[in-house]
Amino acid sequence: MDESHIDAVSALRVRSWQSAYRGIIPQSHLDGMTAAEDARRRRAWFASSRDQVVDLVAVDGHGDTVSGWICFGSYRGETDAQAPGEVYALYVDPARTGRGIGRDLLDSAHHHAAAHRFSTMQLWVLRDNTRAREFYAAAGYVADGAVEVDMYGETAVSELRYRRPLMSR
After folding, report:
1. pTM of the full structure
2. What is the pLDDT of residues 105-130, one digit of tens each?
3. Between 76 and 78, whose confidence is greater?
4. Would you say the C-alpha torsion 42, 43, 47, 51 has a positive or negative sign?
5. Domains of the chain, each with CATH number or no CATH
6. Which among 39, 85, 37 has a CA at the least distance from the CA of 66?
7. Cβ distance 7 to 15 under 8 Å?
8. Which strands sit side by side in the sheet containing 142-152, from one edge to the other?
9. Contact (CB, 8 A) for 69 and 59
């Protein structure tokens, strides 16, 4: 991904949150999300993490519409050579889920991560996001018992850590 994709990725991310997290994240938070604000934060993140993070996008057959995005790198910014990798984000256009786009992006991330020293990948998924949990389980990820709680106003939302070994290349 290059910087030219940021606006499209941000719009995709906001649409995905508003679709996938309805009933999990407070609606007031989802309604308050904007692609413009997300793009502002994403540009800052992109500039500061360019050498530590890999962003891949899936585009439609014409190459002009972003249909999916995955972002990954070292687990929570670890620099230790033995640290696992982490999928920070994976989103697919809600109108295109179920078409293999997410699976293709995840497979690409696994191949890239294995080629660049990671033997394990980890990720965090919302406990109540059943569809995502099933998706990651089908891709070989297993919950390892770690739990984080994020607060959205007065609402506590639990995330579970999943992990998966990678094949060495």
Report:
1. 0.89
2. 999 999 999 888 888 999 999 999 99
3. 76
4. positive
5. 3-165 (3.40.630.30)
6. 39
7. no
8. 53-59, 66-74, 85-92, 120-126, 155-165, 142-152
9. no
